Each structure stands twice: as structure tokens, then as C-alpha cells.
Amino acid sequence: MRMKLMLNLCFVLFPLFIVGCGYHYFAGDLIPQSKTIQAAKMVVRDDRSVAYVHERLEISLRPVTDEELNRKWPEASNRGLKSTNPYTYGNWKDPVTKHTPRRFSVFLLKVKNYTYPKVQVDPAKVKIVSKNGREYSSLSMLELEEYYYPYVRGYAGVAHNRFEARKDILRATLYAGDVIFSGQESEGYVVFPQLHPDVREIAVNINDVVLRFNILDEPVETTDLVSRFHRDVYKARRPRS
């Protein structure tokens, strides 16, 4: 599991350093594709989210920028590579590109249920499929912990405290996937490996959303949702040192 995550991250970071002739790829923020491209019952909103709306059930996804994540935890994002914001590199800049790379692709998932007795969205069943065929699975708490294990020097001292601080934020903010009863709302982050530089258009699939359960709490009605986003990717010459 750890090897899979590290390989995904390596494939994303590798092209940033070997584009050749001093060039690097940089990507803009993800934004929703137009309403005409979205599936039925999907609504594009001004906050850059795409929401499934059925009666009084709403399930929305919004790409979250590193700037927003750093503002949310300013004290955890201002110590360079020692920053404890688990979602970003904080205020660290790559010495080669003079740019702060993205660590992950993060989405805010919100569910508002005022229609069904109870619903459930499993974050493990949220997948990204790019237009050029790449696929990305959401990262679990365990996978994110394993990502940070190499940063820990033993299990005591300052490095371990940073590890625990990152875990605390993850536990408090990852989307939990619990059952949401009528009249309840829930939200949290769904995290993916960083997208490859050649990815410009993606579909985020939320599979097997449970809308109804039987008396044994077994799913009897499910639906699959798709939200579509795109971004600009450009190539820039490496800054002179």
C-alpha cells in the first residue's frame, strides 16, 4: 500500500524536474466544466463546486486550493518543510523552480440530507478518471499516515510531534463516511495523489451512494455521481539562480 502511494507521488513529481532545457510544468486550479457537460441533476455553483441535487438531498464536491488550506491552518503552514499542514507543503518553495508544488489533490465533500431516512457516501469509493485515461483512488487515513512515516526519525522528539500534529488534522477533517440521517449534514476532505502534468480534464466519480437501506441495514438503492472539472497546464522556463 505504501509503495503504491509513493510510486504515484514519484510519477507526479518526476516530470517537474526533467522536462528538459530548463522547463517545468505548472498547473492552474481545478474549476468545474460547464453545466452542459455535467450529468443530469448536477448543478455548477459560484464557489467552484459541483452538486448533485435531488429534492432536498445535496451532495457536492469542490476542489480546494493550497492557498485555502494554508489559510485554514496558518500556524501549521509557515515553517517551510517543517510545516505540519498535512495537505500542503506550507510556505516552502522548491529551490529549483522557485515554486511551491502541490502535495495532494484535495476536494471538500459535503452532504445535506433532508429527503431520505438515511444516506451514506463512502470516501473509499470516490475515484478520479482523467480524459487521457489516468485513474486515481482516494487516499485513506492509513495511506496518508504511511506517506508521512519516512519523515519520522524514530518515535520520539520533534519529528514525531510533527507527525502526530499532521495526524490530528487529518483525523479531524477527512470525510468520515458515516451514515447521515434525515435532517443531518456532514462534510470533510477527500484526498488524492497529485495529478500528473498531462492531466487537464477529470471526472470525479462518487460510486455506490446509498440512498435507501432495508431493515437489516443493507443497501437496497444506490446511485453513482460524476462531477467534471478541468484546469490549465503550462510549461515555463526554469528561473535563473
How does this structure look, described?
The chain has 241 residues and is an alpha+beta fold. It has one domain. The chain is 20% helix and 35% strand. It contains 4 helices and 14 strands. The strands form 4 sheets. Strands 2-13-12-8-9 form a 5-stranded antiparallel beta sheet, with no helix packed on it. Strands 3-4-5-6-11 form a 5-stranded antiparallel beta sheet. Strands 1-14 form a two-stranded antiparallel sheet. Helix 3 runs antiparallel to helix 4. The protein is globular, with a radius of gyration of 19 Å. The termini are far apart. About 5% of the residues have low confidence.
Describe the structure using short key phrases.
241 residues, alpha+beta, globular
Point out poorly predicted stretches: 9-20
Give me the Rg, rounded: 19 Å
Order of helices and strands: HEEEEEHEEEEHHEEEEE
Supply the number of structural domains: 1
Helix content: 10-25%
- How many helices? The count is 4
Main pleated sheet: 5 strands, antiparallel
What percent of residues are in strands? 35-45%
